[in-house]
Amino acid sequence: MMDEKIINEKFHKYEKMLSKSNISVYEYYPATDTAVKLDASLNVVRKISPYMNEINSERWLDLQEQSRYVQFLRGMSNGNIEIQYADDDGHMTLKSIRKLYMVDETTGEEYLLITKKDVTKQKNTERKYREQAQRDSMTKLYNRVSGREIVESYLDRKNPYESCGMLVMDVDYFKGVNDSYGHLFGDKVLIKISQLLMDHFDKKAVVSRVGGDEFVVFFYDIDNNQLVSRIGGFFDDIKTLTFAENDYIPTCSIGVCFVPKNASNCSYDQIFQNADWALYQAKKRGRNRYVFCDNMHRYNEEIMEAGQKEAAKQQLDARYFQNDILATAFEVFEKHRYFDDAIKQLLQIIGIRFQLDRISVVDIDIRNNIASCSYQWRANGVKAALEKPQCYKREDFQKFFSKYNAFNALVINDENVNEYSVEGQRLVMQNNTRTVLHIARYDEGRYAGTVAFVTCNKNRFWSLDKMHELSEVVKLFSVYRRKSLGVNKYDCGCGWYNDYDDLTGLISFARFKEDVEHIIVSGTRQDSVMVYSDIENFSEYNRKYGFEQGDRLLKEFAQYIIGTMQKVENTYFARIVSDQFVLFMPYDISVNDIEYKVQRINDSFIRTYMGDDDGIKINIRTGIYKVTGACSGVSAAIDAANSARKHIKPSDELKVVIYNESMA
What we know:
Elements: H1 4-20, E1 23-29, E2 34-38, E3 44-48, H2 51-57, H3 63-74, E4 79-86, E5 92-103, E6 110-118, H4 120-134, H5 144-157, E7 164-171, H6 174-181, H7 183-201, E8 205-211, E9 214-219, H8 224-237, E10 252-259, H9 268-284, E11 289-292, H10 305-313, H11 325-335, H12 339-353, E12 358-365, E13 370-378, E14 390-391, H13 394-402, E15 409-413, H14 422-428, E16 435-443, E17 446-455, H15 464-484, H16 492-495, H17 509-522, E18 528-536, H18 538-545, H19 547-564, E19 572-577, E20 580-586, H20 594-610, E21 619-627, H21 634-646, E22 656-658
Parallel strand pairs: 10-11, 21-22
Antiparallel strand pairs: 1-2, 1-6, 2-3, 4-5, 5-6, 7-9, 7-10, 8-9, 12-13, 12-17, 13-14, 15-16, 16-17, 18-20, 18-21, 19-20
């Protein structure tokens, strides 16, 4: 046996180590709910019973931590947990608690041996080193790796109803700064720009330096108007930076990508590539500007074996079932000389690829409440639908139209069709239809009908990704159809609209018309106004100051109007072309103050932007149309507001006019 002296010496060493390690030792006996606190010599200091009551009554643990600690003690298995404590001064400390399941050899009683150690300092040190590893050593922004990881983590758990955005930025001609003034000054420029980025975008944003003079900012939960406003403000402020060493004034080029709601499964790489493309466009156009990515395309490939077999039978190109469906649609339309031949083949490809039973291109005459079918594809053995024009009830159409989602899509199953009238049910669910995906079609912003993708023998689930894919194809279909009818004289590449205006970042005019048409035609809106504005003498302004300064004026106007708009649902703002803008928003048209309010906003912008400039005099001219239930659609409302605008003469003192019938 070991000598008693040696045992005592070892015990004293362990006792000394225990006291210096700041570890508290307890024994907890679950059977009697008793805790025994021991000192460094493992002598009993205090007995606490019942211990659970002690835990619940102590103020050093909040309710959540109390619950965690109790659950930890009640589990008899070994393990550890970290608990936050508050000391008498209210300072928070973190303790690591470990437990070991034991049995008393003499009595056979089960108990837990518990150790508590204050790890606050250790954890703070670890956090400090971890943050240092995440940060760029010079600018203190997130580095490329950590910034990406944080954004990817957010995207993995992102609420689909949240929109987000990203900017990618380069400092213009930064190599020349280093060459001319030295790398130490170049570093100072980067540090100052980094601080400005943090000042502008720190809240609900991830700001990263991804290399050299390149920065990335990712925005959480931000709408398009807020994104436009915040980027415009930063772009202006970067030019106000000054340096004591010399007269260098930094400028930057920025690419921006906005990710709208319901853009599911969107990756960091996809967003970055879109923003980086926009940055390239900004540089291509001369730098010292920001450009918005006009669209966010994502395609989720799924090659269907059964579809490929069917395609082989019908001698269709196998690539049509491997490439993304939008690229396939482009190719089909470009390949065929006649639209009818192209649409027939495209419907066949979609029907086989998506394993459908029928696809119908439905034309809607809203004025006369008539639905008809212009093109149709059917799988073998499937009956045709809507073989002759049919009437529908107005109330059925309004229910139907109001349910389109953000992708202009609506899914109807035979289980949820009961809200429509008997006639409406027959019209929608013809010839054994079980599930139909409707994608709305628009022609120059006017609702033209729908494309119905039908499954007959079983109910079908449609993912948002698939809805989005087919929605993009239907947009392309509408463009080529307009071209075939001679309505669109431009090449189809111009006609297939982008979602956002790359100069101002506002939604595109085509998107504006679709969204507002949906509100007006559905008949569910409150009273609204359509506001059509342009800048008087804008062409002369361009000639005198240059197109770059003219673009800046347009951006400033867009920024200013966004800043004055109330955050009201169903408010839309777009640039039509050049200096012409259109705004649609709810408004109580019984109150006769709209002219005064708009004139005040316009005058305020001119004073703010032009100041005391004695150069070319500019004015904002605005026509207003009060949208009521009698309005037939968005085009009529825009035309009316534009007519009012055109009635304003250069000599008129009041530059805001409300439409009346004499202006028609």
